Amino acid sequence: MANIPNIRQTSLDATADRPAPEARAPKKHNITKQPEQAGFNTSFLTPENMRWFNTRALHFLPDPAKPLVCLPCGSAAKTREKFGKKMISQGLGHQLMSAVTREPRFERVILSEPCTIIPYALEGQHPDYNLPPQDLSIQSERIFINQLALWLARVKVAQPDRKFAYFIGGIHHFFILHFANEAAGRPFHLVREIPARGVRDYAASAKAFHEVILTTEATGQAPAQAPVSLSTLVQGRGRYTHRKFWHSVLLEALDGEDVARSVEPVTSRQQAREGFADLYPTKEETRA
């Protein structure tokens, strides 16, 4: 009977003849840092953002004893590395407006795309996101206005004696607040400060607006305010100006008027060809 080789022993002997394997470096996880310009969690309708709005933001009520001050969101790009997520209150714009943003007597609430609102009192609990201005859509801005209107109405029901809501920042977020306030039935008188030169005037404007807020609360009388122009916003090319959306809002505001004779701008042929012909009549159509 032939000898049956010991398979286990043979395997061990063969292994012994092999050269020792080279030491391997620890395996690195293939994680690449997402560039700040790349958007993520950009929709109001993601599960994270819907959960935030429906369970936290919508139910937040400002302190009845504090003026309600609405603030713009911003890129706050450098805060993610330090805090692990976007912290708008620590960004440059809010730092420059420190006369208002660092005032503990004010209830400070950030108007945020796509979180709707981020109260200072809850900041850090909100979902992280990065929404580049070029990713804004007509749908998202309408959701923004509608959800903000729901929150404003809820605040008014809970605090019927509150008369004013304050805003300091750029014209884009002011008009978001304005149309949300209109959609809610105009529950608050809006007192605003829109720095003429944008961020460059934030610090000086915030110092002046701080006194305006305190005086308005003490007297119960809103200050005189120069009108702001939706047409100017539509024509502007600011970083956070979504022109197509504001064109559609402007045209809705002209409903029932003779658009052909209006001095308000309408879309160009190029804009109509970009897929929004149903929203924007061309100049030729308005003359028909």
Tell me what the structure shows.
- With 288 residues, the protein is of the alpha/beta class.
- The protein folds into two domains: 47-222, no CATH class; 229-288, no CATH class.
- The protein is 41% helix and 9% strand.
- The chain contains twelve helices and five strands.
- Strands 3-2-1-4-5 form a five-stranded mixed β-sheet, with helices on both faces.
Strand order of the largest sheet: 3-2-1-4-5
Report Rg.
Answer: 28 Å
Order of helices and strands: HHEHHHEEHEHEHHHHH
- How many DSSP E strands? 5
Structural class label: alpha/beta
Indicate how many domains the architecture comprises. Answer: 2
Uncertain segments are 7-16, 26-36, 258-288
Strand content: 5-15%
Terminus-to-terminus distance: 106 Å
How many alpha or pi helices?
A: 12
The major beta sheet can be summarized as: 5 strands, mixed
Categorize the overall geometry.
globular
Quick summary of this structure?
By secondary structure, the chain is α/β, with parallel strands linked by helices. It is 41% helix and 9% strand.
